[in-house]
Amino acid sequence: MINAVEKRRLKGKTILVVDDEEAVRKVIKAYLSELEVNVVCAESVARARYCLKGFNIDVILSDIAMPGGETGIDLLSWCRREHILAPFILVSGYISPDDVRFALSRGVQHVIHKPFKKRQLIEAVLSSFAVSDSYSNLVNSYIKEIELNQQLFMAAIDGFAAAIGARDGYTLHHSEQVADFAVLLSRRIGLDEKNIQTARIAGKLHDIGKIGVPESILMKKELLTASEFDVMKNHPAKAAEILGSLPSLAAVIDGARHHHERFDGSGYPDGLKGDSIPLMGRILAICDAFSAMITERPYRPAILPENAREEIRLNSSTQFDPQLVNAFLSIPEIAEA
Ligand SMILES: [Fe+2]
Predict the structure, then answer these.
(1) Which CATH number covers residue 192?
(2) What is the whole-number distance in angstroms between the Cα of residue 232 and the centre of ligand 1?
(3) Domain for residue 226, yes or no?
(4) 173 found inside a domain
(5) Does the residue 107 lie in any domain?
(6) Tens digits of residue pLDDT in 129-170
(7) Which candidate in 7, 29, 53, 210 is catalytic?
(8) Which residues lie closer than 8 Å to 273 by C-beta, 6 or more apart?
(9) How many domains does the chain have?
(10) CA 13, CA 86: separation in Å to the nearest integer?
(11) Spatial CA neighbour of 174 closest among 206, 221, 214, 216
(12) How many CB atoms lie within 10 A of CB 17?
């Protein structure tokens, strides 16, 4: 008999029973009724796959040999390929030693031989539910940890961006705007979600090197002298130096270091040309210039978006990557700004 505590633990759990013989499915279902779990039955591997896609299955109990060519071993392989980790119990009249080895290597919990006793089945199923619980606890705790790390990471990034903004209100607004544009452009050129997030971070941090630029230069209303401009020009390399201490930020560092390179090779700090400029640098160069132009600065008023677009177009191939210019200008939010 199953005690009350176990019954509570099993409440709402679902087991998938896969067997081509209706009589066997009925016997298993009858044996399992004591557990008061949900039982979903499938008469073939194809049907089992369908059920696994549609239902939340906690434990799989499957026959091996079934008509139609696909076996319980095939179902097991498919599950693991699809990252379905539900504990798997094989029930079979005959299983070869090779199949046993393969099944165990794929994490099969139990192999039950037909004919089996009710007690045997119940015990195998109960221990598999326990494994299923510990799997889901483990997965949930990993997910929580990853989410927490991501939140902490983004909070640190925003902290960095705020540190620049504390000295210079323009840079904070500008960095947020460059991040937004960089996300739009990255998405437009089909980068994957991870690289889009990298572009966002690179946008937020691209000017972090301005922390090393004195306020007298940063806030100056008049045009900078040549020597002041030299100090200002140091900010991309300074950014790469600051971010260099953070692991796993390689593409962000590339973006920050190279956002003032020019496509024709006349930019700074490294005078890189064309495709040798890292993609994140070429993306930020356009987003940075566009954001700077449409924003009012101490030494000039904001430029109208249509004029800023024209300026970007005019500098395609000289300052900016021409393919990225086309992509940027075709973004609806930019084209209609
Ligand atoms: Fe910059």
Answers:
(1) 1.10.3210.10
(2) 9
(3) yes
(4) yes
(5) yes
(6) 888 888 778 878 888 888 888 888 888 888 888 887 777 777
(7) 210
(8) 263, 264, 265
(9) 2
(10) 12
(11) 206
(12) 25
